[in-house]
Amino acid sequence: MKKICIALDTSPSAKKIAKTGFNYAKALQAEVVFIHVIDNAGVYVNTYDPIMNYNGFLVNQNIKIVESLEKEAKSFLNSTAKYLGEPTTEVKVIEGNPEYEILNFAKEWSADLLVIGTHSHSLLEDIFMGNIAASIVKSSKIPVLVIPVKE
């Protein structure tokens, strides 16, 4: 295994996931990339009617929100790499559906291993929103290391 893709959110448990994945990478002398996916499902939902059928204001606001989220995510990933003593670790922020984008990036990057974490959501949240980690494990064509996390 020469390439390990570590998918992180910005929760406090992300450092545990990053550290575990990074330790595997060091032991295997593998290249690492930290990725974060901005789930755009809620960003582009129009919760009000545009004024006189012009929604340009909303589009501009959504772009600003995404840009802000990207900046925060990159900063978080870079600080995580620095925390692990590898400030030059590659980081990638992607916008889209987390399950799809994580699997797609891992494929495009030719990852040999994907590292993800689980999160303790409520039963109702899992029923209505699904469990991203379970979906990734089910759909992945490469090995997936799942780090159990309780928040």
UniProtKB/TrEMBL annotation:
GO terms for cellular component: cytoplasm. Gene3D superfamilies: HUPs (3.40.50.620). CDD domains: USP-like. SUPFAM superfamilies: Adenine nucleotide alpha hydrolases-like. This is Universal stress protein. Belongs to the universal stress protein A family. InterPro entries: Rossmann-like_a/b/a_fold, Universal_stress_UspA, UspA. Its main location: cytoplasm.
